[in-house]
């Protein structure tokens, strides 16, 4: 617990009390975007569509 307090004091000294809400908000948004990106089920589909499939003939 004391280590956490020391880290908090150092952060307040470095960034200042006014910027802490901005930093916390930015960090929260970053974590939220990262989690949604990792758990996103919509992956890129690399299989060609039916109209893109040719039988070896050059397009005319």
Please outline the major beta sheet. none
Number of strands: 0
**Percent of residues in β-strands:** under 5%
Main structural class: mainly alpha
Mean pLDDT: 77
State the shape: elongated
Number of helices: 2
Low-confidence runs = none
SSE succession: HH
N- and C-termini, Cα separation: 73 Å
State the share of residues found in helices, binned by percent: 55-70%
Instruction: Compute the CA-based radius of gyration.
Output: 25 Å
Which helices and strands, and how do they pair?
Layout lengths: L1 H14 L4 H19 L22
Short précis:
By secondary structure, the chain is mainly α.
Description of the molecule:
The protein has 60 residues and is mostly helical. The mean pLDDT is 77. The chain has helices at residues 2-15, 20-38. It contains two helices and no strands. The longest helix is centred in the middle third of the chain and has 19 residues, at 20-38.
Question: Which tags fit this structure?
Answer:
60 residues; mainly alpha; elongated
